[in-house]
Design brief:
The protein is mainly α. It is built from nine helices and no strands. The chain has a single domain, classed as AhpD-like (Up-down Bundle), CATH 1.20.1290.
Length: about 180
């Protein structure tokens, strides 16, 4: 379903989310690639199939195939890392922190997209998945690369809005699009 069609099914109580999606996809703190890569990565992390389909289709209009691949890769790898590193952070057993992850993470260095953009997408997904250790780590890398707090927060606004819309569509799915 086209994004605009899907958004027409946002319930009145969630109208702010619909309006916020329009606003967060036009933030001047982010490039078009940063914006739509964050949208794509967050749509995967938010796990609502209707929203995912619509947002990935829209993101594909704004991203190269390589950038879309990298955004999806950010969502995938952070889906794993957020669980692993959140566990290590939450556990009171300090031994886990000294043990190697032993998880394959090659895509972090071989995504083929802008490294700053990839870090932003990883940060946004980590915000959705609630991993403080990963949020802190990616935010530090971004700040060390000269990214401003305003830019970081712009990516997190996308994460917050996409996640909230996914929750609404989980609760009240849009009816299927009419077939021709």
């Amino acid at each position: 379903m086209e994004l605009e069609q899907l958004l027409n099914h946002v319930p009145e109580y969630a109208k702010d989310l619909k309006l916020n999606l329009g606003s967060v996809t036009r933030q001047t703190e982010l490039t078009e690639q940063q914006t739509w890569g964050a949208v794509a990565a967050c749509a995967i992390a938010a796990r609502n199939s209707q929203l995912l389909e619509s947002l990935l289709a829209e993101a594909a209009k704004h991203l190269t195939a390589q950038a879309l691949f990298a955004a999806k890769a950010a969502a995938a790898i952070m889906g794993m890392n957020n669980i692993f590193y959140r566990f290590r952070h939450l556990s009171s057993n300090e031994k886990y922190g000294a043990m190697p992850a032993r998880l394959r993470m090659q895509v972090i260095g071989k995504h083929g997209s802008d490294p700053v953009d990839f870090e932003l997408w990883c940060l946004a997904v980590s915000a959705i998945n609630g991993c403080g250790a990963c949020v802190d780590s990616h935010e530090k890398v971004l700040r060390d690369k000269g990214v401003t707090e305003e830019t970081v927060l712009a990516a997190v606004r996308i994460a917050a809005t996409v996640h909230a819309l996914a929750a609404v569509f989980d609760a009240e799915p849009a009816p299927p699009a009419p077939t021709a």
